[in-house]
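Quick one from the shared queue. A colleague (R.T.) flagged Putative dehydrogenase as missing a structural entry in our internal table.

Convert sequence to structure tokens.
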Amino acid sequence: MTAGLPPDAIGGLHEKALAQLDPAHRDFFEGGAGRETALAENVRAFGRLALLPRVLRGAGPPDTTVELPGARAATPVLVAPTAFHRLAHPDGERATARAAAAAGTVLITAMAATTAVRDVVAAAREVRADASVWFQLYLQPRADVTDALVRRAEEAGCTALVVTADSPVFGRRARDDRNGFHDLPPGYAAENMRDLPGAAPGTTLDIAMSPALSWDDLRRLRERTALPVLVKGVLHPDDARIAIGEGVAGLIVSNHGGRQLDAAPATVEALPRIAEAVAGRVPVLLDGGVRSGADVVAALALGATAVGVGRPVLWGLAAEGEAGVARVLAELAEQTAHVLTLCGARDCADLDRGQVVVRGRWGVADR
Ligand SMILES: Cc1cc2nc3c(=O)[nH]c(=O)nc-3n(C[C@H](O)[C@H](O)[C@H](O)COP(=O)(O)O)c2cc1C
Ligand SMILES: O=C(O)C(=O)c1ccccc1
């Protein structure tokens, strides 16, 4: 932090969260895979970008709403799926859901949530009757388990499914290994995993990851649900093309917040090529390293329809519960509207790739 300047709202909540969290839980939330290169690069890559504003466009105040599969959001900043919210705050996912609903944005609730999806959706709908919650899913090697989870998400009222595809195995996370943190402590459970086929009544099944999963499994899922299906964790343009051929409703460019393949690139660096391959056929979302309105606008200009934030939401939750998440989301939404205005944009789509330049590399030498 720069000496003499007060911390910004998100930075202040980050510091407060770090001071309050149990050290092993803090490391679980903060950490990444391997040498944490992808984790750091997600943030650094945004820092290397600058925005070229357009002037005198008569744009007026920007309309920040975005249309998404199964949702309309008041801001292009969504809540990315993260596990175990009750380790951050006793109110857990209910608090996150209420804050996301109040902000008019989409919560992608995790399969590894510590609150059952029906309770998460109910909490969001208490605040806003038309709140949108999407369900993040790891396709399970047992198809009957996947089917039961999908039925739960549908019955709860989720309006889309997000299949996380970047986890054929769990990433290697040195901090968790050092802390021996590999399971939820007693008293907490992955509530969505309770009473599934193959589990004894009342017990929870472990979330399985499998390198044997293929596009065939995704096709099978699509045949069994009417919900739109987005694929999360796409970084290769060829996978974006295949996904579209499979009929997905959207893509999320993500490296899992640097928690899976540490050699993965920063997500904002992967975005332009994905956007080019997709060519507007489905919405492209991005998560990883988004920490400011300028980051959001850079991603929108490079072809994203919206972005997700993971850790900043956990900082707000750990520091101040529902009010903290609300502060993080309000701050990012306000900053985004402000930067859009400064850039002369009418709305989130009124930006183009030429408005993003790489610091130190743009200018005379490029001509
Ligand atoms: C503590 C933590 C838990 C996460 N759990 C999940 C998960 O269960 N499913 C999933 O698809 N992604 C998970 N993610 C990845 C996020 O959805 C998202 O890709 C990432 O956090 C975005 O990066 P950011 O934290 O820099 O915003 C998790 C991330 C964190 C930090
Ligand atoms: O930690 C994660 O990134 C994650 O995706 C996860 C998945 C299953 C259980 C716990 C965490």
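The longest strand covers residues 229-234.
The chain has a mean pLDDT of 96.
Added to the table.
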